[in-house]
Amino acid sequence: DAKTTQPTSMDCAEGRAANLPCNHSTISGNEYVYWYRQIHSQGPQYIIHGLKNNETNEMASLIITEDRKSSTLILPHATLRDTAVYYCIVRVEKGSNYKLTFGKGTLLTVNP
Amino acid sequence: DGGITQSPKYLFRKEGQNVTLSCEQNLNHDAMYWYRQDPGQGLRLIYYSQIVNDFQKGDIAEGYSVSREKKESFPLTVTSAQKNPTAFYLCASSIRRSSYNSPLHFGNGTRLTVT
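Output (structure tokens, whole complex):
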């Protein structure tokens, strides 16, 4: 299975950019990278996903390296409400089915 | 508003009893999933279903059962065979089957406590 590796925790000052790294060195050529976040005791929230090119939406930007072995999620101006566990995941294909496997994620703490 | 509804939010059961967790979606999504989350851990996949009347075991299916009789419903039964059933259970769905470009939408979870 394609796995991802993320730091256990990170801190960021309010108003600054938060850059969350993820390694996915075994990703296959047609697998997307997805990012989700989870605020305590709630369901995870989808943030962004990408295949090869950098992506941006109203929540964040996703930078994927040219060899696709790693990516970075960027929250341009972090707020206290961005404190959450951030998950980087890739799809895993199993025959005609697929599944999404979550790791432990990165706990981002945004400090005032 | 469209979304995924999990009920109840909190559930308490005695050891040895089976319990069924509800998950309903009105997003017209094909695929549905059940994950389990333990304190300080990531999400682990229990079962998933790509289409009505079909489902696949995930990474930790032992002690659990599911059904997918309707597109919008994917109930999870935690049986007495599950050794450590106390956990936070999350249901999710996605729009397309066998697609690489369909994000998961999650419910807000059911916290099950078995004593």
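Chain B is about 0% helix and 50% strand.
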